[in-house]
Design goal:
β4 and β5 form a beta hairpin. The chain is 22% helix and 27% strand. It is an alpha/beta fold. The chain has a single domain, classed as 3-Layer(aba) Sandwich (Rossmann fold), CATH 3.40.50.300. It has an eight-stranded mixed β-sheet.
């Protein structure tokens, strides 16, 4: 019997911190599928904070979440409108803080009425609005694998709260 090749190995890896976990994807479809895996685990009031370079797949992952929650609308980045609402099993509030200077800009549009309430809040470029994020936030860092794998991404899930850790554990054990 030959030794397994990298393609035979599951594309999962434990990040160095016990509070984070990473998975590798090789296409936008795989990245979107991880949104679909996360969606059934989410509850009203959950907050997801997305970080990553332009084009890293933040909106792609949100698209998977929205579809799995039953949203019928087409998912697009809310860069110029700041927020989209997608109706499904739970409402999904999709924010983009790329054009904002700081948390006060998001606060001024009434975002606190959506974050941590009856729906799921997804905030792209969340590092710009850190002070608005509640302690139970699940952080998702999306990064490019390498120039040789332009479609490949590393998705890192992290968060110190019990809620974030419970979500990470469920994802780790999802087949």
């Amino acid at each position: 019997m030959s030794e397994p090749t990298p393609q035979d190995q599951p594309q999962l890896e434990l990040a160095p911190s016990a509070r984070s976990w990473s998975v590798l994807t090789s296409s936008p479809q795989e990245t979107e599928a991880w949104g679909g895996r996360l969606a059934p685990l989410l509850e009203a009031g959950d907050v997801l904070a997305f970080r990553g370079d332009l084009g890293a797949g933040k909106t792609t992952l949100v698209r998977g979440l929205a579809r799995a929650l039953g949203a019928k609308e087409s998912v697009s980045s809310p860069t110029f409108v700041l927020m989209h609402i997608y109706e499904g099993r739970l409402p999904l509030y999709h924010f983009d803080a790329y054009r904002l200077h700081d948390s006060s800009d998001l606060y001024n549009i009434g975002a606190e009425e959506y974050i941590g309430t009856e729906g799921i809040a997804c905030l792209e470029w969340s590092e710009r609005v850190e002070s608005l994020l509640p302690p139970q936030t699940l952080y998702l860092e999306l990064s490019y694998l390498s120039p040789q794998e332009p479609q490949g991404r590393r998705l890192t899930f992290s968060g110190p709260s019990a809620r974030a850790q419970a979500l990470i554990e469920e994802l780790r054990h999802d087949p």
